[in-house]
Amino acid sequence: MEIVVQEADAFSIEADGLAYAGTTAGTMDDEVGERILDHVGDDLLQETLDTAPIAVGAATVNEVSGLNTECVIYAPVMLQPGDRITVENIRRCTRATLVAVCAKNQDALVLPVILPSSDDMSTAEAARAMIDELRGFRSDHDFTVYLVHDDPEVIDALNRVLENVR
């Protein structure tokens, strides 16, 4: 797996899949979810609600049009909106997304950085959880992960973590 850390809007990168870290209830009522729905319509929301509850550590793959990706990989990171996000849930969400990419034999994934509130954990802790899971994931399937965020400070944190684990 190739990991590309990139300062970018997740919606600007062409790839096979776009990861979305949601809730087990299948809702998409945060800023990223609303942006996805603005591009693809409410059919995606209905699909995720129909498959809910979706466990943290599981993922659904929904084909879409209207994005630079062929599908949205919905992997919960929390039970309900506003719940505390733990390091373990970030890891489980990231791993579920990677398993879905391999199951669908995709070549490229856009993985927006999961950033819990600063009360839950620091940006560095969240970055370490995602990078550790990406680096530890083993598969015979070769693909590229674009780990993205539009904040330069978040990108710096990711690059520092990535340099320390090489």
Features:
single chain, Leucine Aminopeptidase, subunit E, domain 1, 5 helices
Polypeptide structure, described:
By secondary structure, the chain is α/β, with parallel strands linked by helices. The protein has one domain: Leucine Aminopeptidase, subunit E, domain 1. The chain has a 6-stranded mixed β-sheet with strand order 1-6-5-2-4-3, with helices on both faces. The longest helix is centred in the middle third of the chain and has 17 residues. The mean pLDDT is 94.
Ordered list of secondary-structure elements with their pairings:
Blueprint: E1 2-7, E2 15-23, H1 31-40, H2 43-51, E3 60-63, E4 69-78, H3 87-103, E5 108-112, H4 123-136, E6 144-149, H5 152-165
Parallel strand pairs: 1-6, 2-4, 2-5, 5-6
Antiparallel strand pairs: 3-4
In the CATH hierarchy, the architecture is: 3-Layer(aba) Sandwich
First-to-last CA distance: 14 Å
Task: Give me the strand/helix succession.
Answer: EEHHEEHEHEH
| Structural class by SSE content | alpha/beta
Number of helices: 5
CATH C-level: Alpha Beta
Low-confidence stretches: none
Largest sheet, spatial ordering of strands:
1-6-5-2-4-3
Oligomer: single chain
Radius of gyration, taken over Cα atoms and rounded to an integer in Å: 14 Å
CATH superfamily: Leucine Aminopeptidase, subunit E, domain 1
User: What is the 3D form?
Assistant: globular
Tally of discrete structural domains: 1
